[in-house]
Amino acid sequence: MQLSAWLNPAFAVINPILENGNLVQLATILGRRRPQLAPRWLGAIMTGIARSELRDIRDGLTAIDLHAAAWTGTKHSFISLKPGVAQEHTIRREDDCRLLSITASDGYTRVPGSVWKPFGQTSISDTDLAVPEHAHCGCHCFEYHSWYWCLTDGEIEDPGLELTPSVGGVLRIGEGLELPLNIPCDDSLSEGETRGIFQWLRISGYPASERAIYQREWMDAGSSSEEEVDDGESSPSPEFSGELVEAWMETFD
After folding, report:
1. Nearest to 106 by CA among 198, 196, 205
2. Do residues 196 and 112 touch, judged by C-beta distance below 8 A?
3. Is the N end or the C end of the chain the one with fewer CB atoms within 10 Å?
4. Which residues of the chain are modeled with pLDDT < 50?
């Protein structure tokens, strides 16, 4: 996944505005990008936390809150996207993650910490036991229904936020920005996000078919749980050698 290629151009626009302290322009740009979040960005700017929030986003430190995403009509994670339909023998890794999260299989009680979907497909035979049963359904996903406010005399149900389409022409926000032609692209963020989602997906070990992915230098995910000792000779562990066991048993004679 090319996270840096997506973030760096955005911050090539945002960083000069932050450096100049033009908070009105910052609020306008962020608000126009996601109108449903405009009041929240305005509040963040007024309370002085917008800079730290943008710094965390730039560093890839995004907090996932599916309820907040539903209330604001935004997407915090690929987990909340519509699923695809698996092929006869393969399933997209993003759908593999989605089904693991929905079924809350062992070790998958939390949504992935990465907002970005993993690339590629995997064999259905290599997935968790809960995945093959629903791999070909193509309908399982998170959908927001409502929230309830429990009161002493009943409850209040809110169906969510309704957005009013923006009307009017183009809003001018000042002089045009001169952006650098060559925007640096650091792969460290992409590597970190890729490593995070793949380690979440294979928390109990990866299948032999994915060995090439997990043995990449920047992955550093350890050895496969399905991959035991190589064909070559290996030295036995002294803790379990037969001589030590026999010596221990002789102490009971």
Report:
1. 205
2. yes
3. C
4. 221-241
DSSP 164: P
CA distance linking residue 122 with residue 132, whole number of Å: 12
- Chain Cα centroid distance, residue 238: 42
Residue 51 main-chain phi, psi, to 5 deg = -60, -45
Q: Look-up: residue for tokens 């939390």?
A: 110
80 CB-near residues (< 8 Å, 6+ apart): 66, 69, 70, 141, 142
| 149-165 pLDDT tens trace | 778 887 777 765 565 65
- pLDDT reported for residue 242: 54
**Cα–Cα distance, 82 to 69 (Å, whole number):** 15
Contact 49, 37 (CB under 8 A): no
Residue tagged 């406010």 (tokens):
149
**Whole-angstrom distance, CA of residue 97 vs CA of residue 117:** 9
Q: Quick one: pLDDT at residue 160?
A: 59
Question: Residue 208 class from Cβ within 10 Å (0-12 exposed, 13-18 middle, 19+ buried)?
Answer: exposed
Provide the 3-class DSSP secondary structure of residue 151: strand
The DSSP H or E segment spanning 137 is none
Closest by Cα among 128, 58, 62, 55 to 98:
128
Beta-carbon contacts of 57 under 8 Å, excluding residues fewer than 6 positions away, are: 7
* Residue that the structure tokens 């979040």 belong to: 37
Dist CA 25 CA 28 (whole Å): 5
